[in-house]
Amino acid sequence: MESKMEKNKQRTLIVGAGGMGRWMAKWMVRHLQSDYDVWITDINKKAANKMGKPLSEKFVKNPLYNNYEMVISAVNLSSAVDLIRKLKAVKYAGTVIDMSSIKQKVNAEMVDLVANSVSVHPLFGPGARRLEGKTVLLVPVKDREIEAKISSSIFPGAKIVEIAEVAHDDLVTHTIQLAQLLSIISNRLMVHDRDLMGTSSRMMQYVEAASLYSSSRLIGEILNANPMSARLVTEIREVLDELEHGSIKINETYYMKELYDRLYDAMDKGCI
Known about the structure:
By secondary structure, this protein is α/β, with parallel strands linked by helices. It has helices at 4-7, 19-31, 45-49, 77-89, 104-110, 144-154, 165-189, 199-211, 216-225, 229-244, 255-268; strands at residues 10-15, 36-41, 70-73, 95-98, 116-122, 135-138, 159-162.
């Protein structure tokens, strides 16, 4: 039986017990427990069990979505679209938060929801321990003011930055996805004996670790689902063609020298 305190909380269902789903559940329990009664569901109960108590005891196998005031989608893109369609079918009228990395397909479904629809993309992974200094992208669906308020309440301390869905997907393409593609190439071709590596090669391993932390299935799905992926691959080929014909152009950016100096300072101190 729910206590009086639990009745005053927003009953919240997190769909997906992968990396970000587990992070979201633990974050809300640790930092927002006075406002939210957190439950979790996943097609794989073993994934939920990895979270330990008390969250492993709040697993729901076949949730009735209308029993929850908030539903947070922390699943892959195709599953997110399926979930939103299920919520529309049951005329869900609470609050839906989606955390997908690609937004055009998801937002096209969310706009028809009766519920408050919040489409966000946290620019950090499941290793984040605090939100100060972190950024969460907000891609407006219907009411940007309400959606910004909800986002701030779920991610207190983070900077909420509004961005249009096409601009968002282009940003993801030329930041996260580009880093993943280059890291895959490095992972496949680079010699991985650290004793035989130069400094830049060893640093590339850190980029690989950060970029390829997600499962290969998730990375592949984003590549296939993103309508801008084909253009990115074409742009990479154009750069390779330029290199093949002896044209090496490097865009000098403001951060290069600063990061270079910080990198070597960290190496001298034995931090990396």
